[in-house]
Amino acid sequence: MGVSHHHRVLDLDDSQHAYTPFLSLTQRESEATTTKPSSVLNQLGTFNGVYVPCLLNIIGVILFLRLGWAIGQAGVLGMLTIFFFAELQAVLTVLSASAIASNGAMRGGGSYYLISRSLGPEFGGAIGVQFYLLYASGVAMYLVGFAEEVAQTWFVDSAWGKKWVVVTVASTTLVTIVCIALIGAHAFSKVNQYLFVVQFACIAYGAVRGNTCTLVVFRLFTVSQIVICVSTTRALESGGHVTGPQSSTLAANMHANYTDELHVCGDSACDLGAVYAIVFPLATGFMEGLNLSGDLKHPGIYIKFDCFLIGKSIPVGSLAAVVTACVIYISLIFLFGASFDGVALRTNFSFFQQVGPTPYIIITGILVSCYTSGLGALFGASRILQAIARDNLFYGFGCLGQGSAHGDEPQYAVAFTALLSFVFIFIGDLDVLAPICTSFFCVAYAAVNFTSLVLQVTGVPNFRPTFRYSCWPLSLAGVVLNLSVMIYLNAMYAAVTLVIVTALFVYLYLVGPETSWGNVSQALIYHQVRKYLLRLDTRKGHLKFWRPAILFVPPTSHAPSVALCNRLKKGGLYIVGDIVLGEFGPSILCILSPTVGPV
């Protein structure tokens, strides 16, 4: 015969008595496998499900239409500085996202799913909406870039005016990518393959026709190929000169020369912050693979094989895409700086097209790149919206969570996202859309790093990532860097973005539905309480600050005694206990019963 003691800490002044634990690995696996039992899920791999979509978005419209301009403004050194901090933001965020993604089984929703299941519905829902908005606005940004290239190539003297040509072309292009998105992820993968063939044909044509010039080719797997034909020094049609790779040209373009002949920066002259805000999207897109988590065969788990860890889709594909993009961008920064004079870089957006045997080679590459980036952003946005709608966090959006019978394709979410992107397209200016996207990107990336930081600092037992290359100092650096960059680039956009996040958080806190996901705030409270309890030293206590600590074992259902002791505790520790007589094994079931105890 043994005695088992059952007790609980009680403070009747508190309204919260329940602690909901984090989802365990088995719970996550169960949730992931039972989300859509009637549908056949896609099984994309690391290459076509993460690496290719990420690189499609990283190598996008900013590279073709604004990279040269940014080099002309900030200089090669300034652009390398911008690129260093932008890629540092990317790498830190990828490490944090990989750690969270490798903690267990995942379902669709990508970054929103990770944050909401870790930090709770309020914070997860608020940041999820930010992620959705940044991708919805990103669709518009890429398609406006597509339309700008079409307008300055074929509709220079249109009676409609440049803005309405851009809006019309971008809207028409949006319809085509919506059709592909409605078909599904497999159509997306096949389109990438066909576009690769188109790009390869452009390269072959340039190689055959460009035998009188130096041909530099950067071949990106199924993404984009950039052909630059540089001959002897000659004037460009729209201003400036191409010199070919020369050390003197590189030296002349090494330092900043801020002007604003093209009125890109508004009414004032450009500076480092304005250039950073416009070109920052060139370092984004690495979260696209995470957004397709529901379509991946192995999203984020590492599998141990003998003495090696075989990395799975999200960590390996995302990091590989970032490294590939770094090599490409650094090479292009030096190549542009050494091959074009400052006038061409600062004042001629179409200098890239004017150096080849025919401008249509580069134009085709630009259009294909913008098109695939917009398509990838639409895929990511619709899947985030589908996940938010399925969680019923916002009233009236439940229908957007429906998916197709095959592949669970978010067709309703695609249609809704297309309508929202159409609104952004009416802005009609790439230089206005880019800073808006930058602000959304920074706060979203800060949230991913913050999630990883909280999980690591609190030491939640459930957080056991198989990806070992992330730690809390790196996550903290990611939070600080992303928020600092956002505020530095545009304080007004930063304030508006943070106000939106705060308003959504308050809304979900007040009227959001009850969920069983768990909330990291409980882990934070436990971590802080334990830390300060361990710092208590009874030897340093003083009579004036003494508080009672009561252990009360009341008779069954004796509520008045419980209330009396609650008054006596005076803010001290109050423990209500119960004694269960019997053997420990059988008695444990009684202890765990919710009916045990006097309260």
TrEMBL record:
TM spans, by residue? 50-69, 76-103, 123-144, 164-188, 194-218, 319-340, 360-381, 410-427, 433-455, 467-485, 491-510
Q: Keyword Nucleotidyltransferase on this protein?
A: no
Name the GO cellular-component terms. Answer: membrane
Look up the record and give one Gene Ontology term from the biological process aspect.
cell volume homeostasis
Keywords in alphabetical order: Membrane, Transmembrane, Transmembrane helix, Transport
In terms of InterPro entries, this protein maps to: AA-permease/SLC12A_dom (IPR004841), SLC12A_fam (IPR004842)
Q: Name one Pfam family in it.
A: AA_permease
Record-level Gene Ontology MF annotations: potassium:chloride symporter activity
Question: Which compartment or compartments is the protein found in?
Answer: Membrane
Q: How does it sit in the membrane?
A: Multi-pass membrane protein
Amino acid permease/ SLC12A domain location: 49-550
- Say where the protein is mainly found: membrane
Q: Which family does it belong to?
A: Belongs to the SLC12A transporter family.
- Would you tell me the protein name for this molecule? Amino acid permease/ SLC12A domain-containing protein
